[in-house]
Design brief:
alpha+beta; 327 residues; 17% helix; binds zinc ion; 2 domains; nine-stranded mixed β-sheet; four-stranded antiparallel β-sheet; 17 strands
Length: 327
């Protein structure tokens, strides 16, 4: 199943369950679209299984915790997980009134040969799989944000290109080299099972980032693994901000339509198009929020050019003043 709630495989059809010298082994040939999409985006975090009618005994350990040793169980299902469980230890779930226990196998984060190849384009020396830590980052999506603006699908694809190679900073120690990660792959992924509030297919920009494993960032890696670092803030530059109602470029020629209002069934928002640059991304720790959120910041290309021009003008003025002997 996927996340203990939807069947994606059947024993004998595309699933083979065996027991090897480590334990239960599951081999699944996946044809489910959602699962394939999640796997491609690096969103599969591990696997677990559900069981019923477990027989066993509890014993109290010296540290006061209880250990349950199970001698017999009925295997209900095995699941691929898109969410990393909060605890790697056993958790208990109640489903349909039956006591179903979920156990999770620790998965070692693996780096594929293809990923390593992509990473090595950015490193000075050649890295081995055990030298790097790879994790997925959800940068942004095409939903209307708190400013009444959204990215077009084309903009998300362009941002995917622009974000490759960009470094990310972790909030608590931005100065240290140990606290930076670099995006080595990014992709706009369409979720065909979901629609945006304005009725188009939902898409999100998913990136894969790596960090060089060091003793100094071991704790940070644990925090990312545990899902504590969730919110990512991104900054980018877009050339166009089009009105979804009349198509006017809101920056060049403002129209009378008001964001959030509905005109003939069309919700007014600004469509951000033609990204020209992407900046560093940063992680913000928000352990209290259950779902990952994204803060978008963007700058109008023209405005940025104007600022640059202003700075240049100021420098020229200073030079002129220096020439005149006033500074
Ligand atoms: Zn308009």
């Amino acid at each position: 199943m996927l996340d203990h709630n939807r069947t994606i495989g059947e024993n004998g059809r595309n699933l083979v369950l065996t027991e090897d010298n480590i334990g239960l082994r599951a081999e699944l040939t996946v044809d489910d679209e959602e699962t394939v999409t999640a796997a491609r985006a690096g969103r599969l975090k591990g696997w677990s299984f559900g069981m019923e009618n477990a027989l066993g005994d509890y014993s109290k350990a010296s540290d006061g915790t209880y250990k349950r040793e199970i001698s017999k169980l009925d295997l209900v299902e095995v699941s691929l997980l898109t969410k990393r469980p909060a605890y790697h230890a056993t958790s208990i779930e109640l489903r349909d009134g039956a006591d179903v226990e979920t156990r999770t196998a620790d998965d070692l984060p693996e780096v594929s040969a293809e990923e390593l190849e992509q990473i090595n384009q950015f490193t000075r020396g050649r890295m081995k799989a055990e030298d790097v830590y790879v994790f997925p980052v959800r940068l942004c999506d095409n939903e209307i944000d708190r400013d009444g603006e959204r990215f077009s699908l084309g903009a998300l694809s362009k941002l995917a290109e622009l974000y490759v190679g960009k470094t990310g900073i972790f909030d608590h120690d931005a100065k240290s080299d140990n606290q930076t990660a670099r995006i080595f792959h990014a992709e706009a992924i369409i979720d065909s099972s979901k629609r945006t509030s304005y009725g188009e297919l939902y898409a999100e920009l998913i990136a894969k980032a790596y960090m060089i494993r060091t003793a100094a960032n071991a704790d940070l890696i644990k925090e990312i693994e545990g899902g504590i670092k969730k919110e990512v803030s991104v900054g980018c530059c877009v050339a166009k901000n089009t009105c979804s109602v009349c198509g006017a470029d809101r920056w060049k020629k403002p129209c009378e339509h008001i964001k959030g209002k509905i005109y003939d069934g069309v919700i007014c928002c600004g469509i951000l198009e033609e990204p020209t640059d992407a900046y560093e991304w940063s992680f913000v720790a928000v352990p209290a929020q259950p779902s990952a959120g994204v803060t978008k910041t963007y700058t109008e290309s023209d405005a940025l050019d104007k600022i640059k021009a202003m700075i240049a003008t100021r420098q020229r003025e200073i030079e002129i003043l220096k020439l005149k002997g006033k500074m």
